[in-house]
């Protein structure tokens, strides 16, 4: 689908669907801060990266059929139990493990996120499109003040991104053609999968997604309709 000018997109798009982890919320910084408060002897940067590194392999086990359908909360817990001994935390009891696993519900938004979403909400329907489960995403939104019109998740479609049923599912939920939905994400693979399903796409730069020691390349890549520095910049481009 050829890219349209921002002014044209503003009238063509009705629904903005947002990736969450890394795009709207700072998972790495939030986990590092949580570890610093509770277990300051632990290398929070390494812990956060190790926890996140288990995410795709765990989902792959579900998508291959090795595991039945599993919520991200439960996958996060499986990964957590695996990495705790590496960081000297094998002694944590069940209550402490449950609390730490819920850190994903307590992730802080990027500084521009809430204001940017509020501006975009003045013109568009806003929904999540995340592999996170409904309870996680709802608690996160409540705590962080994220003004969603609707919370959609892999849990709704019983499929993880990049399964086409997730992207096309948003269009079905709102009864619009895929081209009237725009995925907003900080990950090119997510956006490419959405574009292949006929959705519009907006890339958001999050150079610090993996922390200051691992700066992410956020150079523009072909194929996306919009490229924004942050959600406030996206709101500017869409005339909000």
Give a quick summary of the entry.
With 240 residues, the chain is α/β, with parallel strands linked by helices. 45% of the residues lie in helices and 11% in strands.
Uncertain ranges: none
Helix content: 40-55%
The amount of beta strand, in percent, is: 5-15%
Sheet with the most strands, sense and barrel status? 6 strands, parallel
Query: What string gives the helices and strands in order?
Result: HEHHHHHHEHEHHEHEEH
What quaternary form is this? single chain
Question: Shape, please?
Answer: globular
Which fold does the CATH topology of the largest domain refer to?
Rossmann fold
Q: Compute the gyration radius: what is it?
A: 18 Å
Give the CA-CA distance, first to last residue: 24 Å
Tell me how many strands there are. Answer: 6
Q: How many domains, as an integer? A: 2
- Quickly count the helices: 12
Structure in words:
The protein has helices at 6-12, 27-38, 44-53, 55-63, 72-83, 94-101, 113-121, 134-144, 154-157, 164-174, 188-196, 231-237, and strands spanning 15-18, 125-130, 150-153, 181-185, 200-204, 226-228. The protein has 240 residues and is an alpha/beta fold. It has a six-stranded parallel sheet, sandwiched between helices. It is globular, with a radius of gyration of 18 Å.
């Amino acid at each position: 689908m050829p890219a349209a000018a921002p002014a044209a997109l503003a009238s063509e798009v009705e629904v903005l669907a947002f990736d969450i982890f890394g795009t709207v919320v700072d998972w790495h910084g939030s986990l590092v801060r949580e570890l610093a408060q509770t277990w300051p002897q632990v290398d929070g940067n390494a812990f956060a990266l190790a926890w996140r590194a288990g995410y795709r392999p765990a989902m792959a086990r579900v998508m291959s059929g090795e595991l039945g359908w599993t919520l991200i909360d439960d996958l996060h817990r499986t990964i957590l139990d695996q990495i705790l001994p590496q960081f000297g935390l094998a002694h944590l009891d069940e209550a402490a493990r449950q609390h730490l696993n819920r850190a994903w519900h307590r992730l802080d938004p990027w500084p521009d996120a809430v204001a940017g979403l509020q501006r975009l909400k003045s013109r568009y329907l806003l929904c999540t499109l995340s592999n996170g489960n409904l309870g996680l995403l709802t608690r996160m939104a409540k705590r962080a003040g994220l003004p969603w019109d609707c919370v959609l998740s892999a849990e709704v479609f019983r499929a993880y991104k990049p399964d086409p049923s997730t992207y096309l599912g948003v269009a079905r939920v709102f009864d619009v053609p895929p081209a009237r939905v725009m995925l907003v994400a900080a990950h090119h693979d997510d956006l490419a999968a959405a574009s292949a399903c006929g959705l519009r796409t907006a890339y958001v730069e999050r150079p610090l997604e993996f922390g200051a020691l691992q700066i992410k390349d956020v150079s523009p890549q072909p194929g996306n309709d919009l490229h924004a520095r942050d959600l406030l910049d996206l709101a500017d481009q869409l005339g909000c």
